[in-house]
Each structure stands twice: as C-alpha cells, then as structure tokens.
Amino acid sequence: MRRIKIKELFKAEEKPEEALVLGWVRTNRAQAQFGFLTVNDGSSILNLQVVYDDAIANFEEISKFRAGMSVKVIGKIVLTPNAKQPLEMHATEVVMVGDCPIDYPIQPKRHSIEFLRENAHLRARTNMFNAIFRIRSVAAMGIHSYFQSHGYLYVHTPLITCADCEGSNQMFKITTFDLNNIPKTEEGQIDYSKDLFGKQSFITGSGQLQGETFAMAFSDIYTFGPTFRTENSNTKIHANEFWMIEPEMAFCDLEGLMEIEEEMLKYVVKYVLDNAKEEVEFCSQFIEKGLYEKLTKLLDSKFTKITHKEAVDLLLKANQKWEFKPSYEDDIAKEHEKYLLDHFNGPVFITDWPKGIKAWYMKENSDGKTVAAVDLIVPGSGELMGGSQREENLDVLLKKMEENHIDIKTVDWYLDTRKYGGCIHSGFGLGFERLIMYLTGAENIRDVIPYPRTPKNCEY
Amino acid sequence: MRRIKIKELFKAEEKPEEALVLGWVRTNRAQAQFGFLTVNDGSSILNLQVVYDDAIANFEEISKFRAGMSVKVIGKIVLTPNAKQPLEMHATEVVMVGDCPIDYPIQPKRHSIEFLRENAHLRARTNMFNAIFRIRSVAAMGIHSYFQSHGYLYVHTPLITCADCEGSNQMFKITTFDLNNIPKTEEGQIDYSKDLFGKQSFITGSGQLQGETFAMAFSDIYTFGPTFRTENSNTKIHANEFWMIEPEMAFCDLEGLMEIEEEMLKYVVKYVLDNAKEEVEFCSQFIEKGLYEKLTKLLDSKFTKITHKEAVDLLLKANQKWEFKPSYEDDIAKEHEKYLLDHFNGPVFITDWPKGIKAWYMKENSDGKTVAAVDLIVPGSGELMGGSQREENLDVLLKKMEENHIDIKTVDWYLDTRKYGGCIHSGFGLGFERLIMYLTGAENIRDVIPYPRTPKNCEY
Q1: How confident is the model at residue A139 (pLDDT cuts 50, 70, 90)?
Q2: Which residues of A touch B174 (CB under 8 A)?
Q3: B297 vs chain A: nearest CA distance in angstroms?
Q4: Which end of chain A offers a freer environment for a tag, N or C, measured as fewer CB atoms within 10 Å?
Q5: Which member of B98, B197, B216 has the closest CB to residue A422?
Q6: Looking at this predicted complex, what is its ipTM?
Q7: How far apart are CA A335 and CA A337, in angstroms?
Q8: How far is CA A254 from CA A147, A221, A332, in A?
Q9: Nearest C-alpha in B relative to A141
Q10: What pLDDT is recorded for position B410?
C-alpha cells in the first residue's frame, strides 16, 4: 500500500477504504481495551485520529507510544460527521518507526514561545510553528504565482557585491583571508588584490540596482532572495538576515506602482487563504484573534491614497497627544501610522515624501521638495512595502549621487540604464518576514524565520 | 489606451484592432517613404514589427531612430499569415521615450560572448540572453510548481551559519570587524565575542542539515536559495555564488528518491517547454543544435539505474582507451559518464557509491563498503543531481562524524533528528545553474547567471 498524506486524506472527495499513514505521534490516550493516537505528518496542521484496540497483537506496546515517535499506521478510514474531525482511522496495524526518548523537549502541553525559540530545530513540530512555516511557504508560492502569471521575470541578483551604494557600513564584509594573517601591501594597507575577488567584497542589502538593469531589458522583473544588514538592534522587527521581494517595472509611474502593490497584496492574501486555510484559522484562534477576518476584509477594501503632507495635516489637526510631533520634514512614526490606519479603516498609501529622508535614486517631484515615493501601511503591521518612481533623468541623478557621496565609478553600469534607452520606471521592496508577520499575526520576526540571525544569535 | 505586452499580443486568441506597445528598438530599416522598426519589450524573445510611413508627422525623425532607444508605438494590428511573424503593427504614432546615443555597445550585429560578458548589465538586451534568462525564470517557477503541487514545504534555511560541517575552508568568512583593527583577546586571539554574532560566522554552502530538521516536521521539504563556495577555480562550470535546490523527504528510501528526481526533472522540462517554447527554440537554433529534441526526448525516456560497481564493470569491459582508469574505489570521470550516457542512450542513475569518496551523512549499505547514494547523469551535461539516503542510525552516524573530524558540539541539534522520532529519509541537491545549462545549451556557467561571481570577478 502506498502512503497517503493526511492533507490528501482530508481533501479527497472520495475517501479510500483503507489507508497507510506515516507520521509522528502528537498524543496517545490509552485506555484498558483501546486507545487514541493523534498523528501528524506535517502535510497540514490537521492531525489524524487513530483508534486502536486490543485486537491488535502489539496493543500493549502501542499503549506506551510516546509523543514524538515516528510511526506507521494502517487502518480503515471511517467518516465521523458529528465529531470535530471529519474522519478517523480504525487501525489494523500500528508500528513504531523511530523511538523518542522520554526527555523529548516537545511534550503535548503548552510551551513558552521563548523555550521554543531556544529549540528552533524542534519547534516546527508544534502546531503554531507548523502553521507559521506552512503559511510562509504558501505565501512564497503566492508571490511567485502573482509575478509569473503577470509576465514578470524572476531575476537572481547577486548576493556578493562590491558596489557600495547602500552604504558599506551596513553590509557584512566577506573574505577568504585568514583573519590572523591578513596580507598587507608594502604601504601597510590590506592587500585585497590577494582576496578571492581581488577587491573588498560584501554581502548585499538590496538587489534593486541590478534589478533595474534587468527591467530595462525585460520590462517587468522581480527579485526574491535573502538580504543582509549588520544593524545591531534587538527589536521584534529586525533580523540580520531576511528575505526580500524587489519588483521593478519599466514604463511604470507612481500611480501604476500603487496599482501593482494593491493587486499583488490582495492576490497573495487570497492565495494564502485558499491554500492554507486551516493554518490561517489556527493563527486566528491562537496568535492574533480576528486575523482571519482582517485578511478577508483586506480583499474587499479600497486602499486609501494620501500625500505625506496631507497625512501630516491630518495628524496635526487630530485631537491627540503625540509622543513625536508630526512634521512635514520627518518620517511618520508608529503612533501616526496607527492613527491613520484607524482613521481610514484600511490600508493607506502615503505618497510624495520629503526628499531629505528618502533615498537618492528616487524621482524628484516638480516642487523640488518631495520625491515620488510611496509607503504602504496596513492595519496591524504598519509599513509593509516601500517604493518609488526612480529618477530617470541622468543629470539629476548624477547631482543627487554627488550630494550623497556615492562613488560613481563603482556604479557606472547602473547609470547606463539612464543613458541607453531609459524610461520612467518604478519599483518597491517588500520585506518577506514583515508580510509573514502580517499573515500569521506573529509579533516577533524571530518566530517567522526558520533559524533567525540576530545580534549574538547564530545558532544552528 | 493601456499598454499591451508583445507576448500577450502574439498569444491573444482575438487580436485587438489597435494596440499600444512600449519597448526598445532592436533594428530600424528606413526607406524613402516608409520603414520598419522591430521593437522588443522583454516579455518574450519575439519582436514586434512596426511598419511606419510618411503619413506620420514625425516620419523624418522616426527614420533616424537608433537601436536601444525606448519607444512608444501605437497602431493597427494586421495579421500576416504568410510572413515569418504572425502579425505586425501599422503605426499611427511612434514616439521616442528615451534616447540612446550612438556609442551604445549593443548594436544590431553579432557580438562575441566574451564582449557580452564584459557588458553583463546590457547583455540581457540581446536575443541570446533574453532567452537564457527567461528560461531561468520559467524553470525556477517550474521547480516551485512541482514541489508545491506535491505538498512540499519551501523552507528558507539560513545563509549565515556557524555550523562547520561542510568544512569551513570552503566557506566565506563574514564579519562586521574593521579588518585594519580586529579586536584581540588578552591572549592575542581574535576576539569573536565582539563580532555581531559573538562568534566566527560564514556564509553557507548548503542548507541540507537544517533542511533535514524541517523534513522531520513536515515530511517533504525543499530549499531553493543561493549557496557559496570559495573554490579558486576558473572553469566553465564553477562559480563562487550559485543557486541550489535541496529537497529532503522523510520516510523515503533511495528508490523513492530516484522516483522523485525523475518525475521532477521531467516536470520541469515540460514546464519550460510549455512556458518558454520560443526561447527554447531560439537556444536550439543558436546555442545547442538539437536542444529542443533533446528535451522532448527526455520526457519519454526511461531513466536507467545501475550501481557504481556495474558501471565500472561496464567501463572496464568497454573496448575503449581511458585517460582515467575506471576503479571500484573512485569517482566516475567525465569520459566515463559520456560512455555510459551513449551506451544507455538516456539519463542514468548511478547508485551505491564507494563510501570513501562520499559524504559522512550518507547511509551505509550492509556490505560495509558502499553508501546508498545516487548521482543522476544526463546526456549533454553529465551530473545533474546528487543525493542519498541519510544515515538515520545515531550510533553509526556518530562514528562516521568522529572519523570525519566533525565537531559534534556545533551540530548537536542535527543529531536530534535521529534521536527524536527519526526515520529513513533521503534528499538530493540540484545545482540550479547546472539545470539551466542543460535547458539552454549554454556551455559556460557565466552565461546563465545574471551577474556571475568567479575568482577575481565581482563586477556590478
């Protein structure tokens, strides 16, 4: 008999009469003449209830099966329309595949989230992390599905880079040198010519610039890969390694960009609701009450668009005491985001930001004060995406690079996107973990990354 | 009027009467009263032929449009069933969006592949790299589609690692230290406690070990992400940064593994033929003659299975002069692979390798000499995937780790996969670039990576 996955068993229109399931014991409630095993095989958050009785030769042995053991179970599939689960298995055979000693850390009881973080290699075996990492996987597929079905090219921009425009003080240095014995030049400088790439190199914080070069060939492209920051901050929303999606669209202005962001987000939310319904329901029950409703509501909501100036006007007029005074020159604080989201009762695009606080490559508006940038903030999570129209005018761009002390020599290739057949183009960045926190209700980025890397934490 | 992509235009069952296309000029053949522009927008390798004449006000200007310019064209769509392309546009409006000076390196003529490598930021604008990178993108989607539709969990294993089991001499070190001023302990050792993670860290060459921990929770998982090697070798098939797919399946033995490898490869090939047909046809014409037939043939072929011993028997019996003498203790050389592929006229699984040349985590066979490993070799490319059943017996594994000088303390979490509910499980690695070379016929890994990183080469 071929194995069937529990998810398939629950989904099947026509249930098999008999099935073979392989998985891990979650609980075992043994009585004198019979007992109940719940088995999970990771295909879904749903467990299979396996009823066994003393007609089975090794009944005594089964009665002592512990949580965490891997097992093979064979039996009749019986529909149970009045029970919590739609079906159960009446076992004819229950065999231990792999033992699990009594010191197994993941016992069938509530563990603290901190304890589970310290056992990150085992926490995926709990319901909560089973749900979170399934949603992460399904959301990744939703993102690929959206972009590929809309004709975008998936481009693997390089992780190792020598381009220094994001500020190398935020990038990890990489080297093949023995740090105890770094080659020096006669002048006593580090002799990078002896390193593998012949110069100083880093791992990158963004693929945007390389992505733009591909947008000028394929019109619509996206990246989806890991990025790195050396930020030494221990917060709930920062990690030193995280995944990012960076789409870039030629012939697309700020209006077009917002259209794409809204359409993409709704697509991915719908994709997750369609393909990980049970997992979202679990999170809605145990992580963020009302999560399911929040997500379904998003699908029908109209995203509001306001300028940064309008937002500040609104905040200043609000009958509210601010910790940070709203300002036309400054960023929007968390408390401001919250107010705006409540006020508009749904996601908000904030456009046309003061140029002083935004990146050098963003398109300068005709007012000379703002740039064609946009942040999308969403209920519960705040900022989810940040994007902009790019400055396509080479002379303006060169001026801004000079003002920002960008070494033009290291990115001459980037300037060619403006020199040779340039066009209005736009792009945005979506932090994948931020999205997963939004989709699961998880409040700490450490709980949506399989093996998070944060300051002083690089286990596994 | 809304822009339509050229691919959509060619695919549409019902063509629009009129269309607006945005893209880049590939060629311009101007006559006295009319002319032909070919425009590509990157949605496909196919160009749109745009016919313009002196009824258009700026006819003189259009006649001088150069390759590389970005343009907006509007016109009537006219079917041309007898021409090479199925339709063309009779323009009513042709407007330059972005100029392209005369020194544009990508002219409408044949460029050497070396020249294009040196202009990697512009080469995607040529037919060849347009085709290669589209196939790369479509193949990536094919891989995700295969695994997700079969219930696998996509897991983002960490890139930054402190685990040292792959051999840290092959890994890039990463640090936030100022290399001119590395903190030392009182004993004169490097004080890694002052680095961001508090210990020495690397960027990884494999996500397998972390992947296995997730297979023990989700049954079937796969990774798809970048990996790094410091190898200082300048060959056609080595890069220091490349993408890898590493699936790992619980309750799966070597036979099951081969079944999955064969099914997956056929799925991805079919996916690419279905979704990038024109691009494969282009590669078949201009990169590897017969590529299209090679790929369609694969779909119907039965993969051969032989053991390493049987393969060596066959090679020794062959009436052939070998540069490397086939040996029961050694690897299979390129020339041997070629012979076997010719002999069996299709892909070959070679199983049960001498344990001395394979990794420590592979399952030892009962003969005490071989391991349950398998390499898949395919016509034209040689080795495409390498996998094995994993040693699930904790005692045997510990012995092998000791023999291989693996520091058990750094991977105690890995051992828990054997300790707590372990089971027979298997996995394989697929080098994504190797696959793209197979799918496009490209002979040099530098031509299938957007911005390749190889020794002394870290541009862009």
Answers
A1: very high
A2: 172-174, 203
A3: 27
A4: N
A5: B98
A6: 0.97
A7: 5
A8: 18, 16, 20
A9: B144
A10: 83
